[in-house]
Amino acid sequence: MSWVGWLIVALIVLWFVGKLGSGSSKGGRSNKKPERNVSHEAHEIAEKVTTIQQFRSLERKLETAENRMSEVESERAYENACHKHDVLQAAVDIAQSKIYQWQFIPNVDLNTPKQILDHAYKVYSNEEYQGLKDKLSGDKTDWYGIDGYGEKEDPEPYLKSLIKFRSIVESSEPRDEIIKKINQLVSRNKSLSEEYFDSDSSLKPGDQWFAEELRLAGLPLAYELYSEGYTTPEICLEIDTEVFSSRKGVGPKKLEQLKQFQATVRSKINNA
After folding, report:
1. Which of 98, 130, 162 is the last residue of a domain?
2. Which terminus of the chain faces fewer neighbouring Cβ atoms within 10 Å, N or C?
3. For residue 91, which of 62, 69, 70 has the smallest C-alpha distance?
C-alpha cells in the first residue's frame, strides 16, 4: 500500500476515535462526580444567617447532619451526608463570629438617670440597637456585642436598688419625704449601703445624698456646711464669706469657690 493509502487509513481511524469520544459525553452525561466547593456553599448559607434564632436553627441542622451520617447505608449516600455535614460545620464556624445581639452595659452609680438604669444589662437585637445606641449612649464601650456563643454579662447586684433609688430622687415628692425614703431603702439594701454610702458619717444616707449634690454643684466643704444646717442651695446664700474665710483650712481658692457657687445660685433664682 502506498503512503497515500496509509494516510487515508490513519485519518479514518482518528475520525472514528473522535466520534467515540464525543458519543461518550453526549447529552452532557458523565460518570465523573461533580466537584463540590465546601467553602463556597458554607459562605452562602452563613450569609443568610442574621439573627440568633437563625443561628440556633443552623446549629440544629448540623446536629441532624451528624446523626444522618451514621444512618445511611450506601457509599454514595454516606459521601453526600459527609459533604452536607462539612458544609454545615463550616457555615456554623463562619456564622459563629457574627454579632447578633447587643447588651447595654453602662457604668452605673447613684447619679445615673433611671431611664439608663431601666435599660442596663438588657439585650437587644441589631435593629433595636441601631435605634437605641444614640438615645441611651453613643459610647461604644457601653455596648457589648453578643456572637453565636451568646455569652451575656450578669447585672450588678445593686442594680435593682439603684433603680428604686432613682425612682425616689427623680420624684416630685417633698425633700423630707425623699430623705426618709432614701434612708429606708438603704437600710434594707446592704449592697447599696456598702457601695455608695459612708456608714461612719454623722449624716444619714438621705442627707449624704443632698450634701453630695451640693458638693457636685460646687459648694466647698459641702458635708461640713450641710451638717451645720446649710442644706439647700438657697440657704447656702446665707453663708457669710468673711466668716467662711476664717474657717480652718479655708484659703483663697475655697473662698472663691463659695463666691462662684453663690453667684450661680443667685443667677438661677433670678432666671427662674
Report:
1. 98
2. C
3. 62
> What is the domain count for the chain?
3
Measured CA to CA, the distance from residue 202 to residue 126 in angstroms comes to 49
Rounded Cα gap, residues 81 and 75, in angstroms? 10
Is residue 25 helix, strand or coil?
Answer: coil
pLDDT tens per residue, range 190-223:
888 888 999 899 999 999 999 999 999 999 999 9
Q: What's the pTM value of the predicted model, to 2 decimals?
A: 0.73
The identity of residue 35, as a single letter, is: E
- The DSSP bridge partners found for residue 101 are 125, 146
Whether the per-residue pLDDT at 5 is higher than 60: the answer is no
Please give the full DSSP string across 179-225, using - where no structure is assigned: HHHHHHHHHH-HHHHHHH--TTSSS-HHHHHHHHHHHHTT-TTHHHH
Find the length of the chain.
272
CA distance 53 to 51: 5
Co-location of 141 and 115 in the same domain: yes
Residue 86 resides in a domain:
yes
As given in the structure block, the three cell numbers for residue 122 are: 438588657
The parent domain of residue 237 ranges over 204-272
How far apart (Å, rounded) are the C-alpha atoms in residues 144 and 153? 9
Q: How far is CA 178 from CA 189, 210, 223, in A?
A: 16, 10, 18
